[in-house]
Amino acid sequence: MTPTPPATTADAAFLAAYDATIAATWPPGTTPTTVPTPYGITHLNSYGPEDAPPLVLLPGGGATSTAWYAQAAALGRTHRVHAADLIGEPGRSTAGERPVRSVADLRGWLDALLDGLGATGPVALAGHSYGGWIALHYALHAPDRLRKLVLLDPTGCFSGFRPGYLLHALPMLLRPNAARTRAFLAWETGGAELEPHWLRLREAAAGFPSARPVTGPRPQPDALRALDVPTLILLAGDSRAHDAAKTAATAHRLLPRAETAVLPDVSHHALPLHAPTAPELNRRMGEFLRPDPNEKP
Question: pLDDT at position 208, please?
């Protein structure tokens, strides 16, 4: 086994910012959960009654599980919320000897994660941005393991990126640093006020080592048409990543059991922590995730 390298100053600054974000934004009673998988140890921030239905949350690239604090506080009243740090991404999850290199690896990681959480029945799964792409691929792989699926402004699922978005993101991707991250987020969000602790963490993530994310083509239309999982898709009306209205229309046309809506006055990267939008976002998610009396256990 390869020994774990010593923490760098950048690592220490990131982890300090991570802990400060949890302390400042997540509700009292939040507990860390770790689940070993073949791909490494997954760290989750968990909140809500332990006997409540499980809800697993996957963040966007670089955002970390901490971005879900508003949903944890609201949805943790009715669910046991588990927000995961993605393996290979900034966060407290640690990669193992088997790397995550393909969609099949991501599916295997989520299989092991749900097993480790003791999920004996279907769970609710939600993802934002890149996390939505992972969640949708998992739903196509294991629909019987999911009760409900929620996708927040998912990328690479129903439409491609706008060229202007990629051009603005390129400097941050090629040579990441705090200043470039700050400038990119300010551009994409239109200067929206973001939670200060989380913003400092997002900037610190630029110096945190991470693996190349798994990418791939959009799911095939025939596979999407066959997906029999109730799905809620909420798009950011001011998203610069893609055209929200066209993305919503495509998703509604392809997914037989999808509800779609466009949330106004919020951008792609401001979700899910944009304070003015969070109450409406949480309301829609809560109503959708509420168990149906006729739903099979």
Answer: 84
Kindly report each contact of residues 276-282 with a partner whose C-beta sits within 8 Å and lies 24 or more positions away, as own/partner. 278/70, 278/71, 278/74, 281/70, 281/71, 281/152, 281/234, 282/70, 282/71, 282/74, 282/75
The per-residue pLDDT for range 162-212, each reduced to its tens digit, is 999 999 999 998 899 999 999 999 999 999 999 999 999 999 999 887 888
Residues in the chain: 297
User: Residue 123 in contact with residue 262, Cβ under 8 Å?
Assistant: no
pLDDT at 210: 80
How far is 143 from 124, CA to CA, in rounded Å?
A: 11
pLDDT-flagged residues of the chain (< 70): 1-10, 293-297
List all residues 6 or more positions away from 217 whose beta carbon is below 8 Å from its beta carbon: none
Q: Which pLDDT score, from 0 to 100, does residue 173 have? A: 86
pLDDT of 295 reads 56
d(CA 90, CA 176): 13
Q: Do residues 144 and 123 lie in contact, with contact meaning Cβ atoms separated by under 8 Å?
A: no
Residue 204 token pair? 């610190």
